[in-house]
Design brief:
Length: 132
Amino acid sequence: ESAHCDRPPRGDYRRTCQRRPSRSRPSSTAIRDFRMALTSFDGQFSFKQDSLARLGPREKTKMTAEQQQAFQNSPFMQGVRKCEDLCWKFTCSRDQERAKRDPSFKPKDDDFQAAKAHVYDRAIDYYKALVD
């Protein structure tokens, strides 16, 4: 017997080698599942959960009545009120112009409480989904 008895003879080489896995592309289902896993990850939510776990719940700062009054009279809050007034004027003028063009348009405050026509998920990139 030869010293190399554990080595297969030359003709049996193919039978002893393991078959290599195919390098074909992953299935479309696997790709879709991978994309869904990527798009459903919300980094902002994870950051909030992590900081809540590390720091605990944050207490809201309390202002005295005097501090609240001083804050409301500050230049910052005066600017905020000015912006809100300007926004309200633009909104009213826009609604009036639309009412002139569309007689069926009747704006109501309840319009802002209406149910959404479609539930949007902020984690999904709808533009990318349309392209794919």
